Amino acid sequence: MLRTAAGLGARIASRVQAVGFLREGEHVVGARAADLETGAPIHVRARQVVNAAGVWTDDIQEMVGGRGQIHVRASKGVHLVVPRDRIQASSGMILRTEKSVLFVIPWGRHWIIGTTDTDWDLDKENPAASRADIDYVLDHVNQVLRTPLGRDDVEGVFAGLRPLLSGESEESSQLSREHTVAHPVPGLVLIAGGKYTTYRVMAKDAVDAVAHGLGGGIPDSVTDRLPLVGADGYAALRNQRQALARGSGLHVSRVSHLLRRYGSSVHDLLTLIRERPDLGRPLEAAEDYLRAEVVYAALAEGARHLEDVLSRRTRISFETWDRGIAVAEEAAELLAVPLEWDEEQVKREVEFYRKGIEAERAAQEQDTDQEADAIQHGAPEIVPEAGIGRPGGD
Ligand SMILES: Cc1cc2nc3c(=O)[nH]c(=O)nc-3n(C[C@H](O)[C@H](O)[C@H](O)COP(=O)(O)OP(=O)(O)OC[C@H]3O[C@@H](n4cnc5c(N)ncnc54)[C@H](O)[C@@H]3O)c2cc1C
Predict the structure, then answer these.
(1) CATH 3.30.9.10: does it fit domain 72-165?
(2) Containing H/E element for 203?
């Protein structure tokens, strides 16, 4: 989505944190931000500012003063990843639970099983999964499996926070999945709640509010007719995958994998491999991915750190038994060229990643959210937060 926006003229700044607003009287006329990579302060002037900060919505609201009428609660969702051969089923499943539903979804060579739905008021940057979360998911899926799953079958675990509009019910699974748009002060639009699947409607509603604030004269939104980067031409390329395989020297299953991940941007990856044939090899300790995908993440997908690549641009962090530890060095060395890292930085990245995974594993042995959070929160961050919403932050 960000790359599509950039292609249409948006300026994208990754790892830049808003820490305050620029004000003229009551009006918001921009934001103060910090570049977390360099620590440099940035002032962005704007006629309209949008707060679209998910579970951080209330923190941003506090920066304008007062708590506003809209509050967002965080609900933690934990998913487990298990190998495909652990469940003998030919289709996905949706199971009813006492609170909500549990999905069992086929995912490449794995199953994804989840999710939990519990209130979370601890570290929002990196929510920790606890032993209780993992047991909850296992207990529920085991009710329908002939051969039950145990903790040893779990390859990976990931946790996220849903931003839910609060105030309607105490139970987070009952909170509204609808979104809302508000104008807390002149110059500032707030959008919160909603679902990933409704993001285009949310974006349209937020931009309509911005257009109103600008006094109109802006053409209607065309987001519902705008293909994302890689979508245009995808279907035809899928039909041509055998020819792409012949032309590139890659196996057709590799080409299918690249098409699934990059759509018609597959040509960028194939060009990289043509220029540097070693990039056409799979990563040694994460064979589902090619070395080219790591380099591409830095060149074209805004990855700045090893963790970005292993946990976000690829899913290596929860699709391998060792959670990406064994592949970390090879991936960091591949990133060193486009990101201009020296040997010291390569070591630093691998070390941070390893410590993060160790903390995550230790957290998952803890019974409660508080204990899991205390351990996971203790892991060092490769890029520190600027301190918003924390005591002492501005
Ligand atoms: C486990 C789980 C399962 C889900 N399943 C589904 C599903 O099946 N279908 C579905 O439609 N939705 C699902 N969702 C919900 C969906 O992921 C969210 O609704 C959606 O991501 C919310 O988008 P958002 O842009 O509002 O917030 P977010 O995606 O949280 O984005 C907010 C962004 O603001 C940034 N930010 C915060 N503070 C600052 C600051 N001070 N400066 C700069 N940036 C800042 C954050 O870094 C973040 O990138 C699920 C969520 C979870 C956790």
Answers:
(1) yes
(2) helix 199-213
